[in-house]
Design goal:
By secondary structure, the protein is mainly alpha-helical. It contains 9 helices and 6 strands. It starts with a helix and ends in a 9-residue tail after the last helix.
């Protein structure tokens, strides 16, 4: 149990909607633990397409796609297709392009998946009565989005919503990283790191091969253009590899310790039962370890996606 002083601090931070002595049908409520009822999830998220209309995030997401497609262009048209070794081009092309597709798919799933948004404006008397609170329990209201704030939820000023287990808001995926899309963000960082390392390796081999022969025989482009394209690719790969490898390690560490980045920065003491190491990984990726953990298409239903996009009345909802 928390101490009395700690409970008071929590009440100040989360703005309790019902304070001690408030009269409701379930009895008088005193300071206690936060509760989030079964209806605290983003119910609209199952029926609409999630997308954040943030100009900075959309620009960053577009740049991400452009850089990945640029890497694909250089690898395929500068290094692999001009190669005289058919099997070398085929195997490396299939591997690199497969990883790139998985990276872009993971990016899309991270960007278009509801991260765990709490329903906006659900702080109504009817909803509070439906929670069937016990005496001694306190619920908290977010003054910014006027919603009941579950435990471990934080408000995002860009998404304008409270997000369950919010880790951080990432402009490169134009979305928050939270309870429902963290696995896709981890896959995105992993696959970007892999294709960056792969591109660096292919670039090194290409430079080494072309030094031994004439540059005109190594590429369909002129030597000057080929060198410039490869240099930009190497710079991009080094930056992406460094950034995504660090982010991947940070995310795995957070999952294994059941502590989000916001909770770590705020030094919040856990009031929940922690899921450590493999239990944390299973809760994020779902089920026991398997190759499905690496599949960003898991749970994706094309028919449902088409219905969300074209079949619903009023079209897709763009969350702001």
């Amino acid at each position: 149990m928390q101490s009395s002083n700690h409970r008071l601090r929590d009440m100040e931070q989360h703005h309790p909607l019902l304070s001690a002595g408030a009269d409701v049908e379930t009895g008088s409520l005193a300071a206690g633990v936060m509760v989030g009822g079964p209806h605290a999830g983003h119910t609209a998220g199952n029926r609409t397409l999630w997308f954040i209309q943030d100009s900075c995030g959309m620009v960053c997401a577009t740049i991400t796609w452009f850089l990945v497609l640029y890497a694909e262009f250089v690898v395929n048209f500068v290094m692999l297709l001009p190669s005289k070794n058919f099997w070398y081009s085929l195997l490396n092309g299939a591997t690199f392009n497969s990883l790139a597709v998985l990276a872009l798919a993971s990016h899309l799933r991270t960007m278009l998946t509801d991260p765990g948004a709490v329903p906006k404006g659900n702080a109504t008397k009817e909803y509070m009565e439906s929670l069937q609170l016990k005496p001694g329990e306190v619920i908290y209201k977010c003054p910014k989005c006027c919603s009941i704030k579950p435990e471990r939820a934080h408000h995002c000023s860009i998404c304008k919503r409270c997000i369950r287990k919010m880790d951080h808001h990432c402009p490169w995926v134009n979305n928050c990283v939270g309870e429902k899309n963290q696995r896709f963000f981890v896959l995105f960082t992993m696959y970007i790191a892999m294709i960056s390392a792969y591109a660096l390796g292919l670039s090194g081999m290409h430079f080494f091969t072309c030094v031994k022969v004439q540059w005109n025989e190594c590429s369909d482009f002129s030597p000057g253009v080929s060198v410039l394209l490869l240099i930009f690719l190497c710079l991009e790969a080094v930056l992406f590899l460094t950034f995504t490898a660090v982010m991947f390690g940070t995310q795995i560490h957070s999952i294994c310790n059941d502590e989000t980045e916001i909770e770590r920065l705020k030094n919040e003491k856990p009031t929940w039962e922690r899921r450590m190491r493999w239990d944390g990984m299973k809760s994020v990726f779902g089920g026991p370890p398997s190759l499905l953990w690496c599949n960003p298409f898991t749970g994706l239903r094309l028919r449902r996606l088409l219905l969300l996009t074209y079949g619903r009345r009023g079209g897709s909802e763009f969350s702001v």
